[in-house]
Design goal:
Keywords: Membrane, Transmembrane, Transmembrane helix. With about 110 residues, this protein is mainly alpha-helical. About 80% of the residues lie in helices and about 0% in strands.
């Protein structure tokens, strides 16, 4: 929560631009803020899915895991369309999104 407040209050995205390679540094600050907030939300849904799977609720856990991977794939496709022409990691990103989605869909 403190990180999100610091990002909104100070608008200092230099650390994020340094460590996240799938979004190019020339992307506007709105794209970076959206990416960071969606990453936190995806982390929460993935954690919820893992907790439900650990607790033994397979259907609910797989739902949250599949939802997380589907949203991640949507973000990867958006990055590829928006920045894929000039940024190689944005072009490769949907491959990993499809791979993660397939892993959650074909869970035994």
């Amino acid at each position: 929560v403190a990180l999100i407040l610091a990002i909104y209050c100070y608008k200092n995205l230099s650390y994020a631009k340094k460590f996240h390679g799938d979004l190019p540094a020339f992307a506007n600050d709105g794209a970076w803020l959206s990416k960071i907030l969606l990453s936190f939300i995806l982390g929460g849904t993935t954690f919820a899915g893992a907790c439900y799977l650990y607790a033994g609720s397979l259907a609910v856990g797989l739902f949250w895991s599949r939802l997380s991977s589907l949203v991640l794939l949507a973000i990867c496709i958006w990055q590829a369309f928006k920045y894929g022409k000039s940024h190689l990691p944005a072009r490769i990103c949907p491959i990993f999104g499809v791979f993660l989605l397939l892993l959650t869909i074909f869970h035994p």
